[in-house]
Every structure is written in structure tokens, then in C-alpha cells.
Amino acid sequence: MSVLKEFKDFAMRGNLVDMAIGVVMAGAFGKVVSAFIDGMVMPAVGMLTGGVDFTQQKIVLKEAVAASADGVAAVDEVAIKYGDFITQTISFLVVAMVVFIIIKAINRMKEKQEAAPEAGPSSTDTLLMEIRDELKRRG
Question: How many CB atoms lie within 10 A of CB 37?
């Protein structure tokens, strides 16, 4: 078997293709969630907290030093940027809730499929089985 055929067989397995589709969809979903959080949720949270922009919230440990006239290099600010952490945490919670709801719906559908009783033979099938059994008995 050629290497190319083996690779094709490997790549076309159901689980690998499903996973690839899931990764692509997750990337697109992440962008949707980011837009939702940044554009809708965080402004609303900011309004509830008195107009605070969480993305800019930080605790400055050391102020930035600008470059001096004699050419001494500038020193960047040292800060704990907790606002971005809050935004990302809210984003994670939204994604986790959506995934939970989707999985719960899928599990509910699986339970309904498993709970459905198997259909017995139709009346025509039952009649044909009786005729077959009678012919076997006579014959």
C-alpha cells in the first residue's frame, strides 16, 4: 500500500474529520464570543460599575520611565493587568455555559433515542410468521 493511500485512509477516518471540523468551528465560535463579550457584555458591566473600562484596569507596580535627553533607554511600566483577566474569565464562562447547554441537549436527544422501544413486527409480518410456522408444522 502506498504512503499516500495510507495517509488518505488515516485522514478520512470519521473521528479525525469530525475533530478537524470541531477545531474550525471552535475558532469561529471563539471570535463570535470575543465580539459578544467585548462589544456587549463588558460595556454593560462597565455601565453597572460606573463606567469602568475593565480592559484598562491594572495595578501599577512600577511607573514607566521615558527616555531621557541624553539617550538613556526607557523603562517599561510594570503592572498587574487584572482587567483583561476579568474580561477573559467572563469570556470563558460564556463559552463553558454554551458548551454545557449543547452537551446537555445532545445527551437529552441520545436518551430519547435509547428510550424509544423497538417496534415489534407489523400485523402483516405477524400473519406471515404464523403462516410460515403452520406450514412448517404440517410439513
Answer: 20
Residue 69 backbone zone (phi > 0: left; psi -120 to 50: alpha; other: beta): alpha
51 SS3 class? coil
Burial of 87 (0-12, 13-18, 19+ CB in 10 A): buried
Cα separation, 35 vs 15, whole angstroms: 30
pLDDT digits (tens, 9 = 90+) for 55-92: 888 999 998 888 777 666 688 889 999 988 988 898 88
Return d(Cα 134, Cα 125) in angstroms, integer: 14
**Residues whose CB is less than 8 angstroms from the CB of residue 94 and which lie 6 or more positions away in sequence, other chains included:** 33, 36, 37, 41
